[in-house]
Every structure is written in structure tokens, then in C-alpha cells.
Amino acid sequence: MTNQKNTQVDIDKIEQAVKMILEAVGENPNREGLLDTPKRVAKMYSEMFEGLHKDPRDYFETVFHEGHNEVVLVKDIPFYSMCEHHLVPFYGKAHVAYIPQNGVVAGLSKLARTVETVARRPQLQERITETVAATIMEMLNPAGVYVVIEAEHMCMTMRGIKKPGAKTITSAAKGIYENDSVKRNEILSFIQMP
Ligand SMILES: [Zn+2]
Predict the structure, then answer these.
(1) Which residue, 151, 110, 106, is CA-closest to 128?
(2) Claim to verify: residue 28 and residue 109 sit in the same structural domain
(3) Which end of the chain has fewer CB atoms within 10 angstroms, the N or the C?
(4) CA Rg value for the chain
(5) Ligand 1 centroid from CA 60, angstroms
(6) Same domain, 147 and 117
(7) Are residues 16 and 69 in the same domain?
């Protein structure tokens, strides 16, 4: 059981680093508007990266035996993450589906919390997708898991190739979803429903 361990975040060190970045780009970190910026950024980073100190498997310690063996899909889960290559945001929606086995289900909010916790780390969209699917597979032992994530990456939008609006789609299929395109298409059509 991991609890919140935000004490592991070194606020002072982030503050020093942000001040150094401001100096390095040619700013004056002592001017009025920037005076509290290192402190604000440090506080924000400790929130944005709090997933480093949490284990999403903890959310599945309580499960329910409901005798429900049909698909469960939570779609349009909003998330915000930080690209580990550029430390700028990427954000979008996650869709998480699974088919319970022996009627074992988790509270629906746990699926969204899993996405949020995994996203709050320096990340790649591919790894969020895989980690969410693997966590549910490990903890609920369902017949199958299918996770689809769509996101816009600020590192593509505001720098480099500058393609605003471009979306990246990733998916991870486990269990029966791995080899069953009919079942995957069922989820994809649910996702597209308004
Ligand atoms: Zn990037």
C-alpha cells in the first residue's frame, strides 16, 4: 500500500532550477512578475507529477462480485500529462473498457483515477495506454481489457513541426481483445457515439 508521499518532491530544488532556467533564457528572476514564479512552478510540478509517488494498483484493493460479465466501458475520461521528452503538456481523453471474469468489477471511478495517476508523471502516451491496461489486467484478472487514448501534444503544436489540432491515437488490447477485432470494433463504435 503506497500512500501519498509528496514529501519526496524536493520543492526547494525545483525552485532553484526554475530560477536558473529564467536566468539562462535571459530573464531577470528578480523582477516583480517573476519573483514568486519558481515557488508557483514548484507547487504546480508537485501536483502534476504526484503520480510518481502513487501506485494505481492500490485503487483495486476493493473489488465487487456483481455477476456482471458483459463489457464495462468508461469513455471520455479527460487527462493531462507531461511529455517526458520536452516537459510540455499533452492532454486528451482516455477510454477504458474491460470484460469482467467471474463477475469481478471495480468501482467505476477507479478506472478514471488510474488514468489520472498514471498521467501525472513524465510520460509517453504509449506508456500511459499500456500501464492502464496492464494495471487493470493484473488487478481484476478480467477476460480482456481495451484502452484507447486520444491526445494533442503541445510539443507538436507550439514548436517543431507545428501541427495544431493533430491528434495521436494509441491503444492497448489485452486478453480476448488481443485477437478479436469484432469486440474491439464494438468498443470503437461505443466511443464514437455522442
Ligand atoms: Zn514531446
Answers:
(1) 151
(2) no
(3) C
(4) 19
(5) 31
(6) yes
(7) no
